[in-house]
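Quick one: structure tokens for this chain, please?
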Amino acid sequence: MKMYGIVGFKNAGKTGLMERLVAEIVGRGFTVSTIKHAHHNFDVDQPGRDSYRHRKAGASQTVLASANRWAMMTELRGADEPTLDQLLAGLSPVDLVLVEGYKRGDHPKVEAHRAEPGNPLLAPDDPTVRAVAADCKVDAPCPVFDLNDTTAIADFILLDVGL
């Protein structure tokens, strides 16, 4: 599967860019899946729900299924966090996987950058950053797009992965 990352510091606009790119690329007829890396503890299940109760009782994996969707939650219970490659291997085939985070990975990336909060660019020190999407003028060693020019950023990614 083809994969492209969206990276940047906190509040750089990564999630908004991901959302717009998914809609744009799916609108062009491609299938897209996403992976989001979180640096903090999170829970997608709700206390009191049956699936939550199953996990809290000690289940390693809990599958919640309906006619509209299914989800599998895996408790690591002290095991190592899965690698990006391991997560990719568990996905159903699609045309493109967009990855938010994993900025240290060796896959190609677009860096989201906002003038506020004033963080430095990753691109000058990371050759896997193939473009920057910014809301301000930046000096980068790669193409720079307006952060809100979703069409141009999608064009760039699709061309870069050969779609």
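The domain at 2-41+81-161 is CATH 3.40.50.300 (Rossmann fold).
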